[in-house]
Amino acid sequence: MENLNILVLDDERVFRDEIKEFLETDKFVVHLAGKPSEAFEILKQSEIDIIILDLKLPEMDGLTFLQKVKELYPDVEVIMITGHGDMDAVIQAMRYGAVEFFPKPFRLIDMKAAIQRTKRYISLSNKYKEVEHSYALVSKELRDNVGYEIMGNSKAIKQVVDLMTKVSKADSTSVLITGESGTGKELVARGIHYLSSRKNAYFHAINCSAVPEALFESEFFGHKKGAFTGANEEKIGWFEIANGGTLFLDEIAEMESFMQSKLLRVLEDKKIRRVGANNDIFVDVRIIAATNQDIQKLFDENKFRSDLYYRLNSFEIHIPPLRDRREDIPMLLDYFLKLISQKLNKKIPTVDASVVKALSAYHFPGNVRELRNMVERALILCDGNKLTLKFFAGLPLIDEDVTLDNEIEELFDLDEAEKRLIVKALQKTDYKKSETAQLLNITRQSLDRRLEKYGIDL
Predict the structure, then answer these.
(1) How far apart are the first and last CA of the chain?
(2) What pTM did the predictor assign?
(3) Are 6 and 48 in contact (CB under 8 A)?
(4) Average pLDDT, the chain
(5) How many contiguous H segments (helices) and E segments (strands) does the chain have?
(6) What is the DSSP string of 434-458?
(7) Cβ distance 75 to 29 under 8 Å?
(8) Domains in the chain: ranges and CATH
(9) Closest Cα to residue 65, out of 42, 88, 40, 30?
């Protein structure tokens, strides 16, 4: 925005010309109009950034013109000028969207300062709109193809989405996704695929820990009929299935050394050979790998090939655990409530404030997957129209940040109060049953019965 386009609408020609002459010295492009009809013609033909608008005009007053401009051209900013000191008009103009207001007479230097302020505002507003528009488009596409589980309003998850968007455009770049179990690594991989030019091809997910060494080549590369005992028909391997698309290698750190070397060769040569075949098949596959382990530490300990690590780690995306983006918990809770209620054919219940508070304080070792499972269990147990803490058994069990004293004082549900008291005693004794029973002044057997009754697992 080097040169702003400014429209001056005033019925006094001398005044218009004076403003034009002054502003053009600062390289602004200035258009002049003496009445609203002329101004609308200019707006149709030119991209206007700022309108300097007189309140008293022929054809219609300035406030009416301001309203019409904001309806037709909402991104155009308006600075109001008048020689009539009407405070009601000032307030009304601001309500209609004017950014500045000057009474006549005023100094042209003040006008210039106001335009510079408005210029900075327009620049920031445009950047914000670009970011929001980009994120909204990405979010919509991800929601449509992947789901809400990787959505949120936190800075951390927006950064993940931003990285997904950027790397999706480089559709031959290998990606390594790291993060704890349950954070949504496969969802991020699917998101990258659906945002890329490969989205109309196949996305194939493989759990590397479930592939035995003996079947590795047959599963990944395929085999010819009769290639080995039991090969009764020709089989296409996973690389061919995903040709033109994306191959997602989950738990890549669990892959045996022999398989790592075979995989590395394919990634470097971009060709495979079926077991029992004599010819190579060229493949165009994007590789996205994922692990919940410290893969750097594994290759330092010679448990993972460093050359494969560097080949896979062209671009890394780390998904933060849910406890590091707690502000996303209410949105995810709302999403899972709607999704699972629909699956269970149940009316969506209201949620007690204490549930949101407890969930937001809980540290979620199982991350988003654990939250989903919690919500599903609670909805199955709930027969009424309100979800309370009693449907989230053991929720504060391993989170000392959830303070129960005040809640127990105000709680008149005996079972719920007893359960919370047991939980607090367990926390105090570091979950040692004998010490917990002694603290509660009950027998160990009595504690075991209560733990089973309230669904508290240790």
Answers:
(1) 62
(2) 0.57
(3) yes
(4) 82
(5) 19, 16
(6) HHHHHHHTS-HHHHHHHHHHTT---
(7) no
(8) 5-125 (3.40.50.2300), 148-320 (3.40.50.300), 324-453 (1.10.8.60)
(9) 40
